[in-house]
Design brief:
The radius of gyration is 18 Å and the shape is globular. It is about 30% helix and about 20% strand. About 50% of the residues are buried. Strand 15, helix 7 and strand 16 form a beta-alpha-beta unit. The chain has about 325 residues and is an alpha/beta fold. Bound molecules: ligand RRO. The site of ligand RRO has 15 residues, from loops.
Protein backbone atom coordinates (compact mmCIF):
# COMPACT_ATOMS: atom_id res chain seq x y z
CA UNK A 1 0.00 0.00 0.00
CA UNK A 2 1.48 3.33 -1.05
CA UNK A 3 1.48 6.32 1.27
CA UNK A 4 -0.79 9.25 0.50
CA UNK A 5 0.89 12.34 -0.84
CA UNK A 6 -0.05 15.92 -1.47
CA UNK A 7 -1.67 17.40 -4.60
CA UNK A 8 1.74 18.79 -5.59
CA UNK A 9 2.30 15.40 -7.23
CA UNK A 10 -0.37 16.20 -9.90
CA UNK A 11 2.05 16.92 -12.72
CA UNK A 12 3.73 13.57 -12.20
CA UNK A 13 0.61 11.42 -12.64
CA UNK A 14 0.57 9.47 -15.89
CA UNK A 15 -3.12 9.49 -16.87
CA UNK A 16 -2.71 7.47 -20.06
CA UNK A 17 -4.23 4.03 -20.42
CA UNK A 18 -3.83 1.35 -23.05
CA UNK A 19 -6.70 -0.84 -24.19
CA UNK A 20 -5.22 -3.44 -26.53
CA UNK A 21 -3.51 -1.40 -29.24
CA UNK A 22 -5.33 1.84 -28.36
CA UNK A 23 -3.66 4.34 -26.05
CA UNK A 24 -5.90 7.09 -24.68
CA UNK A 25 -4.90 10.21 -22.70
CA UNK A 26 -7.39 9.41 -19.94
CA UNK A 27 -9.16 6.33 -18.55
CA UNK A 28 -12.57 8.07 -18.61
CA UNK A 29 -14.76 7.80 -21.72
CA UNK A 30 -18.35 8.77 -22.51
CA UNK A 31 -20.55 5.69 -22.89
CA UNK A 32 -22.50 4.85 -26.01
CA UNK A 33 -26.05 6.15 -26.05
CA UNK A 34 -25.46 8.90 -23.53
CA UNK A 35 -23.33 11.32 -25.56
CA UNK A 36 -25.38 11.38 -28.77
CA UNK A 37 -23.98 10.85 -32.25
CA UNK A 38 -22.03 14.10 -32.46
CA UNK A 39 -20.52 16.88 -30.36
CA UNK A 40 -23.68 17.55 -28.27
CA UNK A 41 -21.65 17.59 -25.04
CA UNK A 42 -18.93 19.93 -26.38
CA UNK A 43 -20.77 22.97 -25.05
CA UNK A 44 -20.42 21.60 -21.51
CA UNK A 45 -16.77 20.53 -21.42
CA UNK A 46 -13.67 20.05 -23.55
CA UNK A 47 -14.26 16.65 -25.14
CA UNK A 48 -10.55 16.31 -25.94
CA UNK A 49 -9.76 16.25 -22.21
CA UNK A 50 -11.30 12.81 -21.68
CA UNK A 51 -10.21 9.49 -23.16
CA UNK A 52 -12.76 9.16 -25.95
CA UNK A 53 -16.41 9.52 -26.86
CA UNK A 54 -18.30 6.35 -27.79
CA UNK A 55 -21.19 7.32 -30.03
CA UNK A 56 -24.66 5.81 -29.95
CA UNK A 57 -24.89 2.59 -31.94
CA UNK A 58 -25.50 2.99 -35.66
CA UNK A 59 -26.85 0.79 -38.42
CA UNK A 60 -26.43 1.24 -42.16
CA UNK A 61 -29.92 2.69 -42.53
CA UNK A 62 -31.60 5.33 -40.37
CA UNK A 63 -33.79 3.85 -37.66
CA UNK A 64 -36.63 5.61 -35.86
CA UNK A 65 -36.38 3.78 -32.55
CA UNK A 66 -39.17 2.81 -30.16
CA UNK A 67 -42.45 4.52 -29.25
CA UNK A 68 -42.56 7.03 -26.36
CA UNK A 69 -42.16 7.09 -23.46
CA UNK A 70 -38.60 5.90 -23.93
CA UNK A 71 -37.05 6.75 -20.58
CA UNK A 72 -38.25 6.64 -17.01
CA UNK A 73 -36.47 7.51 -13.80
CA UNK A 74 -36.72 4.93 -11.00
CA UNK A 75 -35.24 5.06 -7.48
CA UNK A 76 -32.58 2.57 -8.65
CA UNK A 77 -31.62 4.36 -11.85
CA UNK A 78 -32.94 5.00 -15.32
CA UNK A 79 -34.99 2.63 -17.44
CA UNK A 80 -34.73 3.21 -21.19
CA UNK A 81 -36.07 1.77 -24.36
CA UNK A 82 -34.81 4.21 -26.94
CA UNK A 83 -34.75 1.39 -29.45
CA UNK A 84 -31.55 2.21 -31.32
CA UNK A 85 -32.68 5.44 -32.94
CA UNK A 86 -30.04 6.69 -35.31
CA UNK A 87 -29.39 8.59 -38.54
CA UNK A 88 -27.67 5.77 -40.41
CA UNK A 89 -23.95 5.50 -41.11
CA UNK A 90 -23.72 7.66 -44.24
CA UNK A 91 -25.56 10.55 -42.58
CA UNK A 92 -23.41 10.22 -39.45
CA UNK A 93 -20.21 10.37 -41.50
CA UNK A 94 -21.46 13.67 -42.95
CA UNK A 95 -23.06 15.24 -39.84
CA UNK A 96 -22.02 14.19 -36.37
CA UNK A 97 -18.64 12.60 -36.87
CA UNK A 98 -16.92 15.69 -38.39
CA UNK A 99 -18.09 17.90 -35.51
CA UNK A 100 -17.01 15.31 -32.96
CA UNK A 101 -13.55 14.96 -34.52
CA UNK A 102 -13.23 18.75 -34.71
CA UNK A 103 -13.54 18.82 -30.92
CA UNK A 104 -10.17 17.06 -30.80
CA UNK A 105 -11.44 14.01 -28.96
CA UNK A 106 -10.97 10.42 -29.98
CA UNK A 107 -14.05 8.65 -31.30
CA UNK A 108 -15.19 5.09 -30.82
CA UNK A 109 -17.85 4.22 -33.39
CA UNK A 110 -20.58 1.75 -32.42
CA UNK A 111 -22.76 -0.53 -34.53
CA UNK A 112 -25.84 -2.68 -33.98
CA UNK A 113 -27.73 -5.17 -36.09
CA UNK A 114 -30.44 -7.80 -36.07
CA UNK A 115 -28.35 -10.34 -37.96
CA UNK A 116 -24.74 -11.20 -38.73
CA UNK A 117 -25.35 -9.69 -42.16
CA UNK A 118 -26.49 -6.39 -40.60
CA UNK A 119 -23.28 -6.17 -38.56
CA UNK A 120 -21.18 -7.09 -41.60
CA UNK A 121 -22.90 -4.39 -43.66
CA UNK A 122 -22.48 -1.76 -40.95
CA UNK A 123 -18.79 -2.49 -40.43
CA UNK A 124 -18.22 -2.55 -44.21
CA UNK A 125 -19.95 0.83 -44.53
CA UNK A 126 -17.66 2.29 -41.88
CA UNK A 127 -14.57 0.64 -43.37
CA UNK A 128 -15.43 1.96 -46.83
CA UNK A 129 -15.95 5.46 -45.46
CA UNK A 130 -12.18 5.68 -44.86
CA UNK A 131 -12.67 7.35 -41.52
CA UNK A 132 -10.00 9.69 -40.13
CA UNK A 133 -7.50 8.31 -37.62
CA UNK A 134 -9.43 9.98 -34.80
CA UNK A 135 -11.86 7.04 -34.99
CA UNK A 136 -9.74 4.77 -32.85
CA UNK A 137 -11.97 1.71 -32.45
CA UNK A 138 -15.34 0.15 -33.20
CA UNK A 139 -17.56 -0.98 -30.35
CA UNK A 140 -19.81 -3.81 -31.56
CA UNK A 141 -23.06 -3.64 -29.61
CA UNK A 142 -24.01 -7.28 -29.14
CA UNK A 143 -26.14 -6.59 -26.10
CA UNK A 144 -28.88 -4.00 -26.66
CA UNK A 145 -31.82 -5.20 -24.56
CA UNK A 146 -34.27 -3.19 -26.67
CA UNK A 147 -34.17 -4.94 -30.01
CA UNK A 148 -37.61 -6.18 -30.98
CA UNK A 149 -37.97 -9.63 -29.45
CA UNK A 150 -35.27 -11.24 -27.35
CA UNK A 151 -33.88 -13.72 -29.82
CA UNK A 152 -31.33 -11.20 -31.05
CA UNK A 153 -29.21 -10.83 -27.96
CA UNK A 154 -26.04 -12.04 -29.61
CA UNK A 155 -24.08 -11.55 -26.39
CA UNK A 156 -26.07 -14.29 -24.68
CA UNK A 157 -24.44 -16.93 -26.86
CA UNK A 158 -20.71 -17.48 -27.55
CA UNK A 159 -21.42 -18.87 -31.03
CA UNK A 160 -23.57 -15.92 -32.08
CA UNK A 161 -20.98 -13.54 -30.62
CA UNK A 162 -18.22 -15.30 -32.55
CA UNK A 163 -20.19 -15.19 -35.81
CA UNK A 164 -20.78 -11.44 -35.54
CA UNK A 165 -17.24 -10.55 -34.52
CA UNK A 166 -15.68 -12.69 -37.23
CA UNK A 167 -17.89 -11.00 -39.82
CA UNK A 168 -16.90 -7.57 -38.51
CA UNK A 169 -13.19 -8.44 -38.31
CA UNK A 170 -13.29 -9.58 -41.94
CA UNK A 171 -13.87 -5.99 -43.09
CA UNK A 172 -12.94 -3.64 -40.23
CA UNK A 173 -9.18 -3.37 -39.71
CA UNK A 174 -9.02 -1.10 -36.66
CA UNK A 175 -9.52 -2.36 -33.08
CA UNK A 176 -12.84 -3.98 -32.19
CA UNK A 177 -14.43 -3.80 -28.74
CA UNK A 178 -17.35 -6.13 -28.00
CA UNK A 179 -20.08 -4.67 -25.77
CA UNK A 180 -21.52 -7.50 -23.71
CA UNK A 181 -24.59 -8.19 -21.63
CA UNK A 182 -25.08 -8.66 -17.89
CA UNK A 183 -28.35 -10.49 -18.62
CA UNK A 184 -26.75 -13.90 -19.04
CA UNK A 185 -24.96 -16.33 -16.79
CA UNK A 186 -22.69 -17.04 -19.78
CA UNK A 187 -20.98 -13.62 -19.67
CA UNK A 188 -17.50 -14.93 -18.88
CA UNK A 189 -17.75 -17.60 -21.56
CA UNK A 190 -19.01 -15.04 -24.09
CA UNK A 191 -16.17 -12.64 -23.21
CA UNK A 192 -13.63 -15.38 -23.86
CA UNK A 193 -15.27 -16.17 -27.21
CA UNK A 194 -15.22 -12.47 -28.12
CA UNK A 195 -11.47 -12.31 -27.50
CA UNK A 196 -10.82 -15.36 -29.65
CA UNK A 197 -13.11 -14.06 -32.43
CA UNK A 198 -11.18 -10.84 -32.88
CA UNK A 199 -12.28 -8.37 -30.20
CA UNK A 200 -9.26 -6.54 -28.78
CA UNK A 201 -11.34 -5.63 -25.72
CA UNK A 202 -14.72 -6.19 -24.14
CA UNK A 203 -16.96 -3.42 -22.86
CA UNK A 204 -18.69 -4.59 -19.68
CA UNK A 205 -21.65 -4.15 -19.44
CA UNK A 206 -24.83 -2.99 -21.18
CA UNK A 207 -28.01 -2.34 -19.20
CA UNK A 208 -29.96 -4.86 -17.12
CA UNK A 209 -33.38 -5.78 -18.46
CA UNK A 210 -36.20 -4.25 -16.47
CA UNK A 211 -39.75 -2.97 -16.52
CA UNK A 212 -41.91 -0.39 -14.77
CA UNK A 213 -45.68 -0.79 -14.46
CA UNK A 214 -47.84 2.31 -14.39
CA UNK A 215 -50.07 1.47 -11.43
CA UNK A 216 -52.87 3.81 -12.53
CA UNK A 217 -53.03 2.48 -16.09
CA UNK A 218 -52.11 -1.04 -14.97
CA UNK A 219 -49.82 -1.33 -18.00
CA UNK A 220 -46.06 -1.26 -18.64
CA UNK A 221 -45.03 2.39 -18.60
CA UNK A 222 -42.44 2.45 -21.39
CA UNK A 223 -43.78 2.53 -24.93
CA UNK A 224 -41.94 -0.69 -25.74
CA UNK A 225 -42.85 -2.36 -22.44
CA UNK A 226 -39.46 -3.64 -21.35
CA UNK A 227 -36.32 -1.54 -21.04
CA UNK A 228 -32.71 -1.45 -19.86
CA UNK A 229 -31.82 -0.27 -16.36
CA UNK A 230 -28.75 1.94 -15.96
CA UNK A 231 -27.31 4.16 -13.24
CA UNK A 232 -26.58 3.47 -9.55
CA UNK A 233 -28.06 -0.05 -9.37
CA UNK A 234 -25.82 -1.11 -12.25
CA UNK A 235 -22.55 -0.32 -10.56
CA UNK A 236 -22.11 -3.49 -8.46
CA UNK A 237 -23.34 -5.52 -11.42
CA UNK A 238 -20.61 -3.99 -13.60
CA UNK A 239 -17.94 -4.45 -10.93
CA UNK A 240 -18.82 -8.13 -10.63
CA UNK A 241 -18.81 -8.58 -14.42
CA UNK A 242 -15.42 -6.90 -14.79
CA UNK A 243 -13.96 -8.81 -11.85
CA UNK A 244 -15.09 -12.20 -13.14
CA UNK A 245 -13.93 -11.60 -16.72
CA UNK A 246 -10.54 -10.23 -15.62
CA UNK A 247 -10.04 -13.26 -13.36
CA UNK A 248 -10.92 -15.66 -16.19
CA UNK A 249 -9.14 -13.83 -19.04
CA UNK A 250 -6.32 -11.75 -17.54
CA UNK A 251 -4.97 -10.79 -20.99
CA UNK A 252 -8.30 -9.55 -22.39
CA UNK A 253 -8.56 -5.76 -21.97
CA UNK A 254 -11.78 -4.48 -20.41
CA UNK A 255 -13.65 -1.20 -20.59
CA UNK A 256 -15.94 -1.04 -17.55
CA UNK A 257 -19.32 0.71 -17.67
CA UNK A 258 -22.21 0.84 -15.24
CA UNK A 259 -23.22 3.43 -12.67
CA UNK A 260 -19.97 5.38 -12.75
CA UNK A 261 -20.92 8.68 -11.11
CA UNK A 262 -17.75 9.51 -9.17
CA UNK A 263 -14.01 9.17 -9.39
CA UNK A 264 -14.12 6.52 -6.67
CA UNK A 265 -16.62 4.46 -8.69
CA UNK A 266 -14.21 4.67 -11.63
CA UNK A 267 -11.36 3.52 -9.37
CA UNK A 268 -13.48 0.56 -8.25
CA UNK A 269 -13.99 -0.65 -11.83
CA UNK A 270 -10.27 -0.22 -12.56
CA UNK A 271 -9.35 -2.18 -9.45
CA UNK A 272 -11.82 -4.91 -10.48
CA UNK A 273 -9.85 -5.30 -13.69
CA UNK A 274 -10.85 -2.68 -16.26
CA UNK A 275 -8.26 -0.67 -18.20
CA UNK A 276 -10.72 2.21 -18.72
CA UNK A 277 -14.26 3.17 -17.76
CA UNK A 278 -17.23 4.77 -19.46
CA UNK A 279 -19.59 7.31 -17.92
CA UNK A 280 -23.19 6.99 -19.06
CA UNK A 281 -26.34 7.77 -17.12
CA UNK A 282 -24.66 10.38 -14.88
CA UNK A 283 -24.36 12.51 -18.02
CA UNK A 284 -28.12 13.03 -18.29
CA UNK A 285 -28.37 14.96 -15.01
CA UNK A 286 -24.90 16.49 -15.33
CA UNK A 287 -23.69 16.85 -18.92
CA UNK A 288 -20.06 17.41 -17.86
CA UNK A 289 -20.06 14.41 -15.49
CA UNK A 290 -17.28 12.66 -17.43
CA UNK A 291 -14.94 15.64 -16.99
CA UNK A 292 -15.70 15.87 -13.26
CA UNK A 293 -15.20 12.13 -12.78
CA UNK A 294 -11.93 12.35 -14.69
CA UNK A 295 -10.74 15.12 -12.34
CA UNK A 296 -11.84 13.10 -9.32
CA UNK A 297 -9.96 10.06 -10.61
CA UNK A 298 -6.84 12.20 -10.97
CA UNK A 299 -7.25 13.60 -7.45
CA UNK A 300 -7.78 10.12 -6.01
CA UNK A 301 -4.60 8.87 -7.65
CA UNK A 302 -2.58 11.81 -6.37
CA UNK A 303 -3.97 11.45 -2.85
CA UNK A 304 -3.16 7.74 -2.87
CA UNK A 305 0.36 8.06 -4.23
CA UNK A 306 -0.43 6.42 -7.56
CA UNK A 307 2.14 7.19 -10.28
CA UNK A 308 0.10 5.97 -13.26
CA UNK A 309 -3.66 5.38 -13.58
CA UNK A 310 -2.86 2.19 -15.51
CA UNK A 311 -1.28 0.72 -12.36
CA UNK A 312 -4.73 0.36 -10.80
CA UNK A 313 -6.10 -2.14 -13.30
CA UNK A 314 -6.78 -5.46 -11.61
CA UNK A 315 -5.24 -4.44 -8.27
CA UNK A 316 -8.52 -5.35 -6.56
CA UNK A 317 -8.34 -8.98 -7.64
CA UNK A 318 -7.84 -11.37 -4.75
O1 LIG B 1 -31.15 2.29 -27.90
C1 LIG B 1 -31.41 1.63 -26.88
O2 LIG B 1 -32.58 1.42 -26.51
C2 LIG B 1 -30.35 1.01 -26.05
C3 LIG B 1 -29.19 0.46 -26.56
BR1 LIG B 1 -28.73 0.54 -28.35
C4 LIG B 1 -28.29 -0.22 -25.70
O3 LIG B 1 -27.26 -0.77 -26.08
N1 LIG B 1 -28.62 -0.27 -24.39
C5 LIG B 1 -29.74 0.30 -23.90
O4 LIG B 1 -29.98 0.23 -22.69
N2 LIG B 1 -30.59 0.95 -24.75
Amino acid sequence: MKRRRSRSGAAGLDRRVTIGSVTLPSAVLCASGTAGHGDELARYFDLSSIGAVVVKSLSVDPWKGNPAPRVHQTPAGMLNSVGLQGPGIAAWCEHGLPELLASGTRVVASIWGRSVEDFAAASAALANAELPDGVVALEVNLSCPNLDGHSHLFAHDPVATTDVLQAVAAVWERPIWAKLSPNTERLVEVAGAAGVAGAEAVTLVNTVMGMVIDTEDRRPLLGAGRGGLSGPAMHPVAVRAVYDCRAAWPDLPIVGVGGVASGVAAVELLLAGAQAVQVGTATFAEPDAAARIDRELTDWCIEHGVDAVSELSGQGQR
